Request: fold
Amino acid sequence: MRKGLLRELAGGKPLWVRAVDGVDLDIRRGEVFCLVGESGCGKTSTGKAILKLVEATDGDILLEMPEGEARAYEDVRQRPDDPEARKTLDGLRRKYSVTWKESLPWTVEQALKSAGAFLAAVFLAIVAPSLLLAAVVEPFGDPWSTIGLCVSIGLILGLIGSLPPTRLSRRTRVILTLLALGSIIVAPISALSLHRALVGDVSRFDVGAALATPWTQELAAMLVGFAFGAIAAGGSSSLLLDWRSRSEGMAGIHMRSIRRRLQLIFQDPYESLNPKQSVYEIVSEPLAVNRISTNPGETSALVREALTDVGLRPPEEFLFRFPHELSGGQRQRVSIAAALVLQPDFIVADEPVSMLDVSIRTEILQVMMELRTRRGITYLFITHDLSLAWVLADRIAVMYLGKIVEMGTTEQVIGHPMHPYTKALISVVPSPDPRHKVERIILKGERPDPSDIPPGCRFHPRCPFAFERCGWTAEEVADQLRSLKAGGMLATASGVDLSDAGNVRLSMGGGGPDALVRELNALVSERRETLLPLKGIAAVHATNGFVELSLHASSEPPLLEIEPGNSVACHLVSPPATVSESLTA
Amino acid sequence: MGTVDVVKVPGAISPFRARATVVSRRMQDIGLQVFHNKTAMAGLIILLFFTFLAVAAPLIAPYSPLTAVPDVGPLTLPGGVHPFGTNQFGYDIYSQVIWGTQISLLVGVLAAGVASVIGTAVGLISGFVGGWIDEVIMRFNDVVLSIPWLVLMIVVAARLNYLDLAGIILVIGLTGWSVTARVVRSQVLSLKERMFVERGRMIGSSNAHILLRHIFPNAFPLIFANTILTVAISILSESVLAFLNLSVKSNVSWGRIIAEAYQHDALTIGMAAWIIVPGLCIVFLVFGFYLFGYALDEILNPRLRRR
Reply:
């Protein structure tokens, strides 16, 4: 399973929060993959995007992709401009992606063809039945001919409208239904007008009289025909479109058909169970919805089995209880049972034990792990608790502000953490042995607002090891200098502000430019190890009346694979070549 | 799965049985709460009293409501076998009041039913679908709400000129669903953000399934309590229409009795009971529905308190 994801969440009107940004996870069959991060970093959004409970703006969720094709996918994804690669990519997505939808660009030719096809359909649907009916001796003599007319209009519209060269779209059905409704009003009128013109009893095309006749005489038949005609148009076009998208290989994977195999265990067992349903209804609902079991005997057997599996024994005692009559642990078991009853292959467990008593946590986790060995379920375990990840996970990904900062096997991530954020997380995990002392890395500051993500490395404002290239901004450096000035340093400067070009600018105090430059340089070299923003200063130079600072160029560290299976996104572990190059610059 | 302690009970549970078990348990629970709630019981006793009057009217009422009594003439003063006297046609007013219960209750309950069904359907769809459909429905609803509802109803009834029982029920019902729609919509808006709705989506339910099986049952207590309050309003509406001579002509109702009493200056000719008794009946019945409705609202929606 693999996904590349770039999604955005609406937060307020003008503000867009990119809750999860470019996360790539590949989860192998049968493993427990842990997603670790502090609250609000986008773990849950990632989990829900995988199950398509929130729509990702971009990206793929690829299901059951063989190793070779996964590598091919990765390969072609790097070359989006190559038409050949795009074709391969589309093919792979069509085959494995849950989110993929065929998107055809509109061209003038295509638009004209579509419009032509629709016009032809409408024309045929109105004119052909009208002509036929006009030839009949007494049009609308009986209700059946009216209904028959309406249905045939609907069918003709549905058939012609959804044939090539129209585009396949979900809206086609709706458009055709609406067209059918319109035609059903027009067709009888024109038929009657034609008939009268042929018979010759009224002047040609007396629309008013024609309008009055069918509506007063055959109103009921018209209304019935209205409904049937619309259904005929919608139904036949829907069937045709389905058949076409399958035969032309444009169908992709239907999410509803794989819902059964991907399940989610919710974090909050108090909120996620419908208070008006009994345990039996909660657990049997997935079976009914997915039409897995409609036989009451089979359903109740499956429900009992699922309840027994999660340790609610005997199940009879719980079947007709409401959620409010259960304890928190029992509720979470019911929630798990409702996910398990579908026999899923993959479960996203979104902090399944964080709302529970510590005493129950182990039981629930044991149930989950036991089911893994018994049924071979793959887990994506979302947690903020690194010690839990350490116990459960085969592989771990650490997330910070919507990005993966480190990913690898449990041994690699916990045993040899490379990213400063991972190191900080590990150092604050409490140890039961009081003699065992570790140097705690306490992160300073607050988690930044996700709508205003720091440039460069997202973590640099809180990172204890941040250095030149991590993305110090002029504001950060200016703030640091201001606080130094407030503390009595920088006596030779009179003020710190930002120039129009966005550089840090110090206005001169008493001593002239040289004194200020000298003091700044001394200060930077002396304090740069404790006051990290000073590291962002690349050069100090005097301009007319001011001293301006230029800052180091920065970039966002990419997620690099430093050893097989272990990737880190940090400038500290970037390949040495690039480091030395930029240090000398 | 090989576990030993699986209890092997072959008994199949049909969906119907599952639902019935749950509903009956829930009803017992609510019944008990109603029984212990003084307000609800007071309202319920009033309602039962009037329901009894309506059902047993043919047995209790000594005379037919729309035939002149044989022994005395029209406009007899209260006393003797005619505790409230007779009206301008010589009909027994006491019997008329008893028979009037039927129409008031029937119109009230059925009109409230019509209003609730329409309001609930509109509210559910509007709240759940959202988007421009919601916008269109709600703006339309705003327009309807901004017209004084009593005036709207009177105008519609007057325009239609003659109404039978079904007609009067429809007029009251069709002009009274806006508030229900608004209340239901707001409840649906909050319910559809709840986690169990997301759960429903996760297990693969269709929107219709989620709406009917998750959102509607959770909104139902509110709808039910609201319906009972709507009954009170509908009874008042019928009385107003009857007083304005716009209601059913072939049956007697409290509003019509008051209208006739008013036309014949009941107070000045010493027949105060003619106007006061049916008035009190309306007040008490409406009061009963309000008591029961509010108490039920508190029992069913403990977290909502007062709207």
Chain B touches chain A at residues 1, 3, 5-7, 9-15, 18-19, 21-22, 25, 194-196, 198-206, 209, 213-214, 217-218, 220 (CB under 8 Å). Chain B has one domain: 45-300. The domain at 45-300 of chain B is CATH 1.10.3720.10 (MetI-like fold).
